[in-house]
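Structure ticket #2291
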Amino acid sequence: MKGDLFSSEHMVQPASAPGMTVENSKCVRYSVNGEMLARQGAMIAYRGRLQFERKGQGVGGMLKRAVTGEGLPLMAVRGQGEAWFAHEAQNCFIVEVEPGDEFTVNGRNVLCFDASLSYRISTVKGSGIAGGGLFNSVFTGHGRLGLVCEGSPLVIPVSPQYPVYVDTDAIVGWSAGLETSLHRSQSMGSMLRGGSGEAVQLLLQGEGYVVVRPSEATPQKAQQH
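Resolution: structure written out below.
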């Protein structure tokens, strides 16, 4: 068979490295030799001797997910082979988490990760009840974390001299060492007179990086995630 579809641009080549690699801008390949974890429903193809198992979070995790809406619906992938992961044709990226690192990320942006990483669901400090329930997943350990993002993300340096304000619907994640709090940019009076409507942002201060996607979740998207 011939045609552009069968060109080297689209043809899968032998794996060049074990573990997680970016296959293309919309897909992550994982060469499995043991175990890894991924969001449920993200596997689009596989080959080899692999088993897929829904991973329970325990009673506490299920309760926290019901309350926060943030818990990661995960599946474990075990065996030997290759699997490809994607989500709604969003752009894919890999984060290297090293010992001592701590990366906080919105659950909707998690695609897959090494079993050597651990995660916990945490309340965003400073958000409180007024934040509408700002809960993220905090990853620690040593390994790779695959992320998805609508569009090309912005990685913005944060320093004590230059704190960053981010729309809560646009934030993807941030590095350790940053302090968070809610910031109200407008008074109720200015909003009634026709302000932008962006009344509350997440303020990040300290030394590190914040990752932002170039879009905001629509009500329908927010409910789906």
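Closing remark: The helical segments are 58-68, 188-192, 219-224.
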